[in-house]
Amino acid sequence: MSELKVGDTFPEGVSFSYAPLTPENSEITACGIPQKFDASKEFKNKKVVLVSVPGAFTPTCQVSHVPSYIKNADALKAKGIDQVVFIAFNDAWVMSAWGKANNIKDDFIIFASDTGAAFSKSIGWTAGERTARYALVIDHGKVVYAAKEAGGGIDVSGAEGVLAKL
Prior knowledge:
Thiol-specific peroxidase that catalyzes the reduction of hydrogen peroxide and organic hydroperoxides to water and alcohols, respectively. Plays a role in cell protection against oxidative stress by detoxifying peroxides. The chain is of the alpha/beta class.
């Protein structure tokens, strides 16, 4: 696979690992049981923003990136976005804790692991061994926005940058 571009079909066989939020694992110290999130299947029936970051709880990701999506959730929904999926190199338990630490209470925004950065490597968007900072918008299986950050900011992958292109 190569870099995804606007107009491409989101590839088959893409999955992430995530621990869905349940009443039993709602506390930050509760682990939950990771399961497969079949992105290829899920993205066929939704309009989704897939946001990749280098790591959970890292400065830019925690201070700027995640808050931009939380703050703009209503604006994203108004533009027809059904879900925001954050991925990073971290495992599913860390990603779950990151969502809980940010008071995520539903599945509009989920936090999943790009295990081994497999998907990010497949499209050539990594930062060394980690996932790079990028955003994709997939509208019922078609890529309608694809942008990777050139530097350390969130100009094209933050919610404001994505909203400007919707």
